Amino acid sequence: MAITHIHPITKTVEISMKYCMKDKREILSENKKDDIKDVISYATKDKTGETIFFTLTSTQNCEIPNDPIRSFQENIKRNRGKLRRENPRTKSGREVLAWHLWQSFETVIDPRMANEIGCRLAKEVFSNYPAIISTHTNTEHTHNHVVICAWDLDGRKWNDCHETKRLIRRVSDQLCKEYGLAVLEKTQDMHLKKYRDKNGKIHYFEATDRKIQKIKERKTNFDVNNYRNTTAYEKYEEKRLTNIEVVRNDIDRLLPIVKDYEELLNKLRELQYVIKDKRSDGSWRKYVTFIPPTAERGVRDSSLDKDGFYCRTNLESYLLKAYKEKKKEALDNGKNYVYHQEYKFGTTNINEVDFDYRLDRDGLLKKRSEPEKDLIKVIKDQYIRLHVYSKGKSSIPLKMETQNKMIQRIQDGFRNLEFLEEKEILSIDQLKKESNGIKQNYRSCMIKLNELVQKINQLENLRKIPEKIQTLQKHIEEHAADEVYQKTEMDIDIGLLRNYKAMLEEFDMKNSGGNQNLEQGILILQEKIKKLFLLRDYYEVEIKRYEACQKIFQDIDREKGNDRRKR
User: Fold this and answer.
1) What is the rounded distance in angstroms from the CA atom of residue 500 to the CA atom of residue 131?
2) What average pLDDT does this structure show over 115-129?
3) Separation of alpha carbons 509 and 518, rounded Å
4) Side-chain half-sphere of 259: how many Cα atoms within 13 Å?
5) What is the domain partition of the chain in residue ranges?
6) pLDDT of 310
7) Looking at the predicted structure, is the pLDDT value of residue 463 above 50?
8) Which of 40, 120, 327, 400 has the fewest CB atoms below 10 angstroms from its CB?
9) Cα 262–Cα 268–Cα 273 angle in degrees, nearest 5
10) What integer is the mean pLDDT of 38-67?
């Protein structure tokens, strides 16, 4: 019989590995040449020379078999931060560097057999992960210590959960049965349920496994064993974007409407970004760091994609090339075009609005997109109809209400035309995509805003704790002689008073320095909240503009008998 337990290593891997392997050791003459790369055997001796206990240590997937500690350190250094999403942390927020698994057997058994069981367990469960397996016999129970690197050889990170714990237990029990050892048939940690089939035979099921089996029978389209493939996880991902996705979406949205890299950074700063781009002497940093207002940590430009497109030098060359192409196109075309800073009914000459091309604020010629052409067509049609009726060329008089609606539609068309030109929107699909991106950024902003509001509320409550302690102490002293109070409420109040004092000690509120730190923390949070409020207002305005633009195209489609909402 074997009992298993696994816990994370967050500070240093070296201490745990040295504990498992010890320092004094005698290496065996022959090493295994399979997946378990080498075996180290040593005995710790006292002053008399007698063996106190016997230890076997094996390694798995270690690039340096004779130095597993260095092998682990190199693997962590190489793969750390490679896949940012798969980055599980402990409740304290520390990053997991490795996992320490121990497997304790019922009695003292042959250490070589115990080590073999531990090696097979590591090979089956952690097949691609570097690991060391040490067997100790210094207690009444022979036991294995297995230290597993958190990253495998491909850079994927192990995420421990209830399912993986049950997997370790199942594999351990199967191996014990193969080697003639007893297993626990019914334990609380496995949550086994007794079940009798049609033939009267008794079975024990894991409740979770039984639920999974039922879900599989529903013939769903996703792997039920992977939470990342569920609809619940997809809905969660829709609500919350990573910092990389937020920065990348904002840059993609701004690239078509900026001339150079400096203007891009200025536009991002208008969105309340904090950008670390230059040193104190004015020279460029090696990496430009973008800190969105919804995040506390920054994102380097080199980490935004694998190809390095978002790096400063690449973006500078991209924007310069785009500017030259636009300038060349403007010079090659000999036709005179009018630049419209704004479109307004009554002042804008509709005949001067070209159907195919337009000028931007820099005097560069740009080809009109299909959505722009659709809007211009609608605006001109409304102009013609309004002109016919207003000049009395129609036999049917036009109602004032209908006339006002036509004017309003022309104004809406002009407003959305300006919007399409400003955002450089080339298609309806792009319009929808950018609209969804803005909405996702808005949701991320609101989530972060709510988190900060909760934090500042907690800190604000800390201010009131000294007053609460004073009031509670006074209440206890006044009612200390009351027997009813002693039996019913006194213990509760004393416990509450103890908790209040513990909070003061935790936040170091007894001295003036603690109060200053508290006030400073509140001020910092208030500044962050102000920036997020500004960003929230900006997103709300942008969402309304996108929705208004989408609505007018839905109206256009309905008139054509082609409703995009049905697609």
Assistant:
1) 45
2) 89
3) 8
4) 7
5) 2-190, 202-230, 243-329, 341-426, 431-557
6) 92
7) yes
8) 400
9) 125
10) 59
Residues contacting 212, CB < 8 A, separation 6+: 224, 225
One of 3.10.450, 3.30.930, 3.90.550, 3.10.50 is the CATH number of 2-190, namely 3.30.930
* Sign of the alpha-carbon torsion through 434, 440, 446, 452: negative
- Burial-class residue 376 by CB neighbours within 10 Å (0-12, 13-18, 19+): buried
DSSP 345: T
- pLDDT surpasses 70 at 227: no
Q: What's the rounded Cα separation, in Å, for the pair 512 and 522?
A: 15
How many angstroms separate the most distant Cα atoms in the chain? 123
Residue 207: count of CB within 10 angstroms of its CB: 11
The DSSP call for residue 85 is S
Range with top average pLDDT, 26-35, 118-127, 189-198: 118-127
Q: Which residues contact 38 (CB under 8 A, 6 or more apart)?
A: 31, 32, 58, 59, 65, 66
Q: Are strands 51-60 and 98-105 parallel, antiparallel or unpaired?
A: unpaired
Beta carbons of 378 and 409 less than 8 angstroms apart: yes
Angstrom distance (rounded) from CA 194 to CA 204: 5
DSSP string over 489-522? THHHHHHHHHHHHHHHHHTT-SSHHHHHHHHHHH
Give the rounded percent of residues in the chain with a pLDDT score beyond 70: 74
Q: Give the helix/strand (H/E) hosting 100.
A: strand 98-105
Cα angle 198, 204, 208 (rounded to 5 degrees) comes to: 110
pLDDT over threshold 70, residue 442: yes
Q: With contact defined as beta carbons under 8 Å apart, do 441 and 245 qualify?
A: no
In the sheet that 2-9 helps form, which strands lie side by side, from edge to edge? 2-9, 98-105, 143-149, 131-136, 51-60, 36-45, 26-27
What is the average per-residue pLDDT within 71-83?
79
* pLDDT higher at 229 or 127: 127
Q: Tally DSSP H helices, then E strands, for the chain.
A: 16, 14
Amino acid residing at 39: V
Are 54 and 111 in contact by the 8 Å Cβ rule? The answer is yes
Question: Backbone phi, then psi, for 319, in 5-degree steps?
Answer: -70, -35
> Which residues does residue 149 pair with via DSSP β-bridges, in sequence order?
98
d(CA 115, CA 28): 15
CA 93 to chain CA centroid, Å, is: 14
Rounded to whole angstroms, the Cα distance separating 61 from 55 reads 20
Q: In this model, does residue 213 exceed pLDDT 90?
A: no
